[in-house]
Amino acid sequence: MADTAFRELDRVRRFIYSCRTCGVCRYKITEKVPYVCPVKKASPGFENFSSRGKIMLAQALLEGALEPSAGLARAAYSCTLCGNCMTQCGATDQDTGKPLVDNTAVVEALRADLLRESPGLVDEAYHRVLANTRQYGNPWGMPRSARGKWAKGLKLKDAQKEHAEVLLFTGCTMALNPQLSQRARKAAAVLKQAGVDFAVLGNAEPCCGSVQKRTGAFELARDMMNSNIKQFNSLGCAVIVTLCAGCCNMLKTEYAKTDEKLAPKVYHLVEYLSRLVKDKKIAFTKEQHMTVAYHDPCHLGRHLGIFNPPRDILRALPGITLVERVATREHTICCGAGGGMRLFDGGALAVDMGREALQAARAAGAQAIVSACPFCETNLETAAQGFDAPFPVYDIIDLIYDAAELNG
Length: 408
What we know:
By secondary structure, the protein is of the alpha/beta class. Helix content is 44%, strand content 8%.
């Protein structure tokens, strides 16, 4: 292979060579950390399924001690990119206070190099997502004309025709999945009740590029970001509110690395609504007698540090009792859907990881689990189907909508 075959790994070599392969990311157990890596826990547990193993593979590639193979590609894609290994690692940069080893950056770089130089080694499921993006503008292969169907009959502002302070960004998964799109309608109803001046893009709403970036299609994701920034900045909105944790992380962090900067400020719905709740802009009139555990989406919690807003909202809902699992907030174990794991081996491993998350919630005394990410909710709902008794999975907007007794 050419010298440039591992150019993305070369860019993150400082992380690779900063790892001391101590194994904390593989073996750490404390009162708040039952285990670190959900993939290792749900798999046979071989080294290649752990963060340390992936770092060792990346180093071997850079040093020419290993050649790309189908097995190596499986190792690269058997990761949720949750970042818990980074949280639990004791090595921090003394200047920045951040983890000395950015494991997610290394895994993404490994995927990018394999996808570019050895695409035949990467499972077809990931290629299909990228082909769908190029043809349909979204990773799920749905026609562009379906993007705005969720808003039919709501008489919402069209961001391309009418100015609004806020752009409600639904994201591909929420907008295009019929089982999830009702939650977008609920979000719009809540914003309306609160008197928020917002608009939507409908069929013109683009994909944010998160799925493509995590898959390793860096150039495709970069082109998408550049195009999207021009579109968003042309709208004149001051704020973008996202319904998806992955979209929020992408817009807040990856878009900040581009040459042209995104002008509007970005918030996830829970951030935005928590302020409205605090300011009493949303009236809750219905009690819902239920004990729930909140599942922190990795993109929203561990990666962006947004832990309190969703909990503040849940505590404000009449009749809702919030309990915490053993591993919570920055220690939360990934639901299993992150990093493309729903595509890995048909999603079987992802569902196993989701089942662990639900069992932890039940052990904490919860009657249901609540999150703020369509990927989490889809995987957790699939995992819940394997339980003997029903265990509901909610998006936080479901509970807000019901407590406000809205119709929309």
